[in-house]
Amino acid sequence: MLEFLRTLHPGWCALLALVENTALVGLGALLGHGALRLPGARRLTPAPGPVSGQEYALVASTTLINTAITVAGWWLWRAGVIALRPGLGPGAIAELIVLVMVMDVLMYAGHATAHLRVLFPWVHRLHHVFADARPITLFALHPLEAIGFGAMWLVVLAVHPFTVAALTAYTVLNLVFGILGHLGVEPLPPRVRRNVIFRWVATPTMHVGHHAEPRYNLGFYTTVWDRVFRTLEPGYDTRRTATVPEPYRRPAAAVAPD
């Protein structure tokens, strides 16, 4: 597979990247709508209305930007800036854990920066226009945000040679966390949410809480950095462990934190 990709014509690479990123959006939407129909799913924010033209436009823009980032990654890999390795097993699992931990730190830092009062109105506020989130809201981003995340991703890949298996697993994991956090519901049953693991691993409720109250819950995969920097929403653990989580109030207006 790697040899096939290495000899691929740039035009075919761009087409393949577009198909891949479009498929990820479609897969995410299917995953999200399936999770919304789980028997124990509890709605935490009001159901969103019809999808707006603006949201569709932003999703299309993010898909095209992600396609360009994928092609850029392919070009950097062919140029030797990014190294990929085959391999499965414990090594790939360890790499996945490291990758998640590194991206968790970087994404928290990037997200907190995007919420600074001087930056928020110009870039990240656009994502918070869609307070009553739906599955595709994950991809409704300002172009600069999509470019920023993609650039961060490429820098991480350039620093260390990861296995293809670890990168593939991370892509799937990132999609799952992103989609489940943009449903406005908590699909996990109480006995799962109460497990000590989920004190540290983010549940869907965590990012739902961020859309309801943008000052809090800036992390993505874990609650570690929100706990360290005291940005965890005060009622999060109560909702997380409740048999029937209390719904959030109508999501707050998209404003920068104090």
Describe this structure in words.
This protein has helices spanning 2-6, 10-36, 53-78, 90-114, 125-128, 143-159, 164-180, 190-193, 197-200, 204-212, 224-228, 236-241; strands at 42-43, 84-85, 162-163, 185-186. By secondary structure, it is mainly alpha-helical. The protein has a domain at 10-188. The strands form 2 sheets. Strands 1-4 form a two-stranded antiparallel ribbon. Strands 2-3 form a two-stranded parallel sheet. α2 crosses α3 (53-78) and α4 (90-114) runs antiparallel to α6 (143-159). The termini are far apart. Mean pLDDT is 88; it is low at 253-258. The chain crosses the membrane at residues 12-36, 56-76, 96-116, 136-156, 162-185. Keywords: Membrane, Transmembrane, Transmembrane helix. Residues 97-231 form the Fatty acid hydroxylase domain. This is Sterol desaturase family protein.
Strand and helix layout:
Layout lengths: L1 H5 L3 H27 L5 E2 L9 H26 L5 E2 L4 H25 L10 H4 L14 H17 L2 E2 H17 L4 E2 L3 H4 L3 H4 L3 H9 L11 H5 L7 H6 L17
Helix pairs in contact: 2-3, 2-7, 3-6, 4-6, 4-7
Subcellular location: Membrane
Organism: Actinoplanes oblitus
Pfam families: FA_hydroxylase
- Bin the strand percentage: under 5%
Helix/strand structural class: mainly alpha
What coarse outline follows from CA principal-axis ratios? globular
Major β-sheet strand ordering: 1-4
